[in-house]
Automatic annotation (TrEMBL):
<protein>
    <submittedName>
        <fullName>Uncharacterized protein</fullName>
    </submittedName>
</protein>
<dbReference type="InterPro" id="IPR001851">
    <property type="entry name" value="ABC_transp_permease"/>
</dbReference>
<keyword id="KW-0472">Membrane</keyword>
<dbReference type="GO" id="GO:0022857">
    <property type="term" value="F:transmembrane transporter activity"/>
</dbReference>
<dbReference type="Pfam" id="PF02653">
    <property type="entry name" value="BPD_transp_2"/>
</dbReference>
<keyword id="KW-1133">Transmembrane helix</keyword>
<feature type="transmembrane region" description="Helical">
    <location>
        <begin position="20"/>
        <end position="42"/>
    </location>
</feature>
<dbReference type="GO" id="GO:0005886">
    <property type="term" value="C:plasma membrane"/>
</dbReference>
<keyword id="KW-0812">Transmembrane</keyword>
<feature type="transmembrane region" description="Helical">
    <location>
        <begin position="49"/>
        <end position="67"/>
    </location>
</feature>
<keyword id="KW-1003">Cell membrane</keyword>
């Protein structure tokens, strides 16, 4: 679910050049796979482990197949670094 969401978010950010749309597409893509998992487990009463593993493997394969052409493509927009007053003073956390 997370791999498909990440791929969808990156592709949306790449093609629309908008971070907000990229985040929304990532949320929707992950949510759609979650709904498929819920349908399989609740409505069809399938085993959660088996359907979860199948969806995870499908997501890994699909994101690898669809994202192969995007390897090495830099993201057009990235979130900027910002300081959180309390956390930035902790040595091993630093800037976020």
């Amino acid at each position: 679910m997370m791999l498909i969401g990440a791929l969808g978010g990156f592709m949306a950010n790449l093609y629309t050049n908008n971070l907000v749309i990229g985040v929304l597409v990532a949320i929707i893509a992950g949510g759609m796979l979650s709904l498929i998992h819920a349908f399989l487990c609740i409505t069809l009463r399938s085993n959660q482990v088996v359907s979860g593993l199948a969806i995870t493997l499908m997501g890994a394969g699909l994101s690898s197949f669809l994202g192969k052409s995007l390897v090495g493509v830099p993201a057009p927009n990235c979130f900027r670094a910002f300081k959180i007053p309390f956390l930035s003073s902790i040595p091993f956390i630093g800037r976020i």
